[in-house]
Specification:
heterodimer; A: alpha/beta; five-stranded parallel β-sheet; three-stranded parallel β-sheet; 16 helices; 11% strand; globular; B: 435 residues; Rossmann fold; 2 domains; 15 strands
């Protein structure tokens, strides 16, 4: 039996409003409520609601044979509650089917692991509670923000009791090996590692509507053929991608929803293929090898490293400044202040400050509410200055 | 190709970016193998004929006869919908100045008429109330130049030389390229001088190709002058990497930070926004100096405003700077601000970047189309401007990133590209002429 393991990432950051130097000390509200509401509602309308509808129909149609996983960041769930409750309800309906696994990540979609293990653990626990509360599941699978991964992440996550972790199937992780097997991180004894098959995942996520691509147009039948072609070379094909692929990155007009609706049926035409969630794949498999990953990898850009968030002096400066406040913030024991501090940790704030625009520029620019990385940095520092003054000394 | 080029200023005697741009363009054209004859209104002392071009003083050309000159004038007036001399003088001139101008013109005519070598025009390059008269006379001389200097294409820079270009085209029948570095709308906002506008439009309509220094300017030409977009090519300016004339000054860590405005102190350059932003910054911290380097008709008002704000201790005026003084100014600055209200291109931020000075530029500028590693503001948004000045003062990470990325970016902004683009344009025009 060959597993088809599908997981979608759902994340919308809290965008900061334009905050000038002259507001420091005068205004302590930092979020761009209007933009956050408008974007949540727009993306829900274009992607989350229609895509969930397709997924729900597939689950019913295939009577439990179609299974899928999501990781919905805590900040996204909070935004749904505030701006778009129908989107959260729709995810809850998926949870109720019993065919959907919800994964665990850091509540604020943060880079906390890189700066404070304690804060990392607190955010992971907070997200686990949230998933339990909203979706009625206790997650056993973990995925770190932006698939940031190395031996140390694996070791920490294993100690926290997780059974499975997801990461990028990058060459620097796998070497000559195939991503289509279950592995184990080198320092771990129980934790299993599922790796993203990035060529096949990106065929859908990035190339689906690219008319310059030799395989365009991509049909469900053709893609299922490629999936079936992995037979004999693996036990699981891991298709991991941003959920916004459906309707937002690939517009409805490209036929992406029809593709999604048709794909499971095409794949299931082969009896030896079955959809499974990460926890299910992991439970039935024993690792084929240990993988030693001393350096950080991620799923971002061509470099698959940390440089999208931590690649220039502005990003380093801003990150260090946020995490330098940890003990002072925690000492206040003020939940509101702690919450604001955490929302300033969301990785997107630092992604906006990225200056390596030239190769991967399109993606960075598309998601950037700022006109330039410099504006992103200046605005963030202004906010942080006010926040620091607020917590006192 | 032989290029007959008409300009109004050329280094080292420059009052703005036009002379700098002309120098960069002619150098690049020289490297592309063209021979450029650059016609200036008055030979300025210290301008040597550089290897890549010949400089001609338009005043050196003798006119054959007075009758010829009258003929030329009539011809030019046919092309103009305005009474050139009178209407142009009206906006600024007083009775006294007007009489003085008339008297001066008569004196010129008397002197030149008595010249044994025939009729000579003493064209001066001064911007002044009799400017329109000067422009007209300059254009008449252009006809004579075009007859004597062999050329394949005529290239003019801005409205001052448009009539000269039209004259040359009439004389030689060669294609005319009208290069737009600034428009009357940039200089004067909505209070346009109708005569200048008419000359600009006439030139662009009668030309074979219009070259705009930015998409910003191209849009304005389409919108305000009704020129078809297909006729307009955008050729961005660049920056010359000349060796520095002065050494880096001793770095004194305790020195107060310097924020620089360098340019003409005129409406177009937004000096008033710089002063207001400076006042905002000084309201927060006093360990910073602001410098306004340049001259212009708004300078007195700016100085008055600084006095009114009681900030004379912190905001300094240097007057007009040239050569090594400009370099010294950049070298001793920490932030460069270009708050232009309407800037067709704006070379000066690129020059500041050559000296590793991070720049804040107006979004209402052509240079912001090609410059990514700069802080950008709306010229009217004083809060944002001040906020960004403060951010640069506060955060060395921001400064470091801008300087590092900026110097890399500067490598790609070269006059060679402009030279190549002009070569293509000349080539297409010549090919059209052959058919």
């Amino acid at each position: 039996m060959i597993h088809v393991c599908v997981y979608f990432q759902v994340h919308q950051p809290n965008r900061l409003r334009k905050y000038t130097f002259f507001e420091i000390g005068h205004s302590h509200f930092y979020e761009d409520e209007d933009a956050n509401r408008a974007i949540s509602r727009k993306v829900a309308g274009k992607c989350y609601l229609p895509a969930n509808e397709v997924i729900l129909a597939l689950i019913k149609k295939h009577e439990g044979r179609f299974r899928v996983a999501y990781s919905v960041s805590g900040v996204t769930i909070d935004q749904f509650k505030k701006h778009c409750p129908e989107a959260l309800d729709s995810f809850k309906r998926l949870a109720d089917t019993g065919c959907v696994e919800f994964l665990n990540e850091t509540y604020f979609h943060s880079l906390a692991f890189l700066f404070s293990k304690e804060e990392f653990k607190r955010q992971v626990e907070a997200h686990r509670e949230l998933v339990r509360r909203e979706f009625g599941q206790t997650p056993t699978t973990f995925r770190n923000t932006e698939f940031i991964f190395n031996n140390e992440v694996a070791e920490t996550v294993e100690k926290m009791g997780y059974k499975t972790i997801l990461a990028e199937g990058a060459e620097k992780v796998l070497g000559w090996r195939s991503p289509n097997f279950v592995y184990q991180p080198a320092p771990c004894k129980k934790l299993k590692l599922l790796l993203r098959n990035y060529p096949l995942s990106d065929d859908i996520a990035f190339r689906f509507s690219n008319t310059g691509w030799s395989e365009h147009p991509l049909t469900a039948e053709k893609f299922a053929g490629w999936m079936h072609g992995t037979r004999g070379n693996g036990e699981t094909v891991n298709l991991f991608m941003d959920y916004e692929t459906f309707g937002e990155h690939q517009w409805k007009e490209t036929g992406i929803f029809d593709f999604l609706a048709a794909l499971p049926g095409e794949i299931l035409k082969a009896d030896d293929f079955a959809f499974s969630t990460p926890a299910e794949v992991s439970a039935g498999a024993s690792p084929v090898a240990k993988l030693d990953v001393p350096d950080y990898v991620s799923w971002a850009d061509v470099e698959r490293d940390l440089t999208a968030w931590k690649g220039n002096s502005m990003q380093d400066d801003a990150l260090e400044a946020v995490y330098a406040l940890e003990s002072r913030v925690m000492k206040t024991k003020n939940p509101d202040l702690i919450r604001v501090w955490r929302s300033l940790q969301t990785s997107d704030h630092f992604y906006y400050m990225c200056t390596k625009w030239f190769a991967d520029g399109d993606v960075h620019k598309y998601f950037n509410p700022y006109e330039s990385p410099y504006d992103a940095y200046v605005n963030f520092q202004n906010v942080l200055s006010d926040f620091e003054a607020t917590i006192g000394r | 190709m032989n290029v007959l080029m008409y300009g109004w200023e050329f280094p080292p005697h420059i009052s703005g970016g036009l002379g700098v741009a002309c120098f960069g363009l002619t150098q690049a054209l020289g490297r592309e193998g063209h021979k450029v004859t650059f016609v200036l209104p008055r030979m300025q002392k210290g301008v040597a004929s550089a290897g890549h071009l010949r400089l001609l003083d338009a005043g050196d050309f003798a006119m054959e006869t007075l009758e010829y000159r009258e003929l030329e004038r009539r011809h030019l007036l046919e092309h103009l919908s305005v009474e050139v001399i009178d209407s142009a003088l009206r906006p600024y001139i007083t009775e006294k100045l007007y009489l003085a101008a008339i008297e001066r013109m008569e004196r010129i005519e008397r002197e030149t008429a008595h010249s044994s070598r025939g009729y000579r025009l003493a064209v001066t390059g001064d911007y002044g109330p009799n400017l329109m008269a000067e422009v007209l006379r300059y254009s008449q001389v252009a006809g004579a130049v075009a007859r004597r200097v062999p050329h394949d294409v005529i290239h003019t820079h801005d409205w001052l030389t448009v009539l000269a270009g039209l004259e040359a085209k009439r004389v030689s029948g060669k294609p005319l390229v009208v290069h737009v570095h600034a428009l009357e709308f940039d200089r004067s906002g909505e209070n346009v001088n109708q005569a200048v506008y008419d000359i600009e439009r006439l030139g662009m309509e009668a030309s074979d190709r219009v070259v705009a220094v930015s998409h910003y300017t191209k849009d304005m030409i389409v919108r305000r002058y009704g020129i078809h977009p297909d006729k307009i090519e955008v050729v961005h300016n660049a920056v010359t990497r000349a060796p520095r004339k002065v050494e880096d000054p001793e770095v004194d860590g305790r020195r107060e930070k310097v924020v620089l405005f360098l340019g003409r102190i005129t409406f177009q350059k937004g000096p008033d926004y710089f002063i207001e932003a400076a006042a905002k910054v000084l309201g927060v911290r006093k360990d910073v100096r602001f410098v306004m380097a340049g001259s212009g008709d708004m300078a007195p008002r700016m100085i008055e405003r600084v006095g009114q704000l009681r900030l004379g201790k912190y905001i300094h005026f240097t007057g007009f700077l040239t050569g090594a003084d400009v370099e010294r100014m950049y070298l001793s600055s920490d932030i460069y601000v270009m708050p232009s209200v309407s800037e067709p291109f704006g070379i000066s931020p690129l020059e500041a970047m050559r000296f590793d000075v991070p720049v804040i530029i107006s979004k209402q500028s052509g240079v912001s189309e090609i410059l990514r590693h700069a802080l950008k503001v709306d010229f009217w948004d004083i809060d944002d401007m001040a906020s960004k000045i403060l951010a640069l003062l506060d955060h060395s990470a921001l400064r470091d990133e801008l300087v590092a990325q900026g110097s890399r970016e500067l490598e790609s902004i070269q006059w060679e590209k402009a030279g190549q683009r002009l070569t293509e344009i000349y080539g297409r025009l010549a090919a059209q002429g052959d058919n």
